[in-house]
Amino acid sequence: MPQLNPSPWFPIMLTTWLIYLTIIQPKLLSFTPTNPPSNMPSLTPKTTPWPWPWT
């Protein structure tokens, strides 16, 4: 079964991850978010039961 042979795909996967970790990830992490999270208190919404017509 040629799918189980990791020889051609494993170096490609390692190379891809190394490129991602060394080049792409620092560039993505340098961006600042446009809407930073705020420290608002979490309010739980009041839920009402659904009025089923057959009950």
TrEMBL record:
The keyword Amino-acid biosynthesis does not apply. It is a single-pass membrane protein. One of its GO terms (molecular function) is proton transmembrane transporter activity. It comes from the Eukaryota. Its main location: mitochondrion. Signal peptide: none annotated. It is found in: Mitochondrion membrane. GO terms for cellular component: mitochondrial membrane; proton-transporting ATP synthase complex. The chain crosses the membrane at residues 6-24. Keywords: ATP synthesis, CF(0), Hydrogen ion transport, Ion transport, Membrane, Mitochondrion, Transmembrane, Transmembrane helix, Transport. The keyword Transmembrane helix applies. GO terms for biological process: proton motive force-driven ATP synthesis. Belongs to the ATPase protein 8 family. PANTHER family: ATP SYNTHASE PROTEIN 8. This is ATP synthase complex subunit 8. The lineage of its organism: Eukaryota, Metazoa, Chordata, Craniata, Vertebrata.
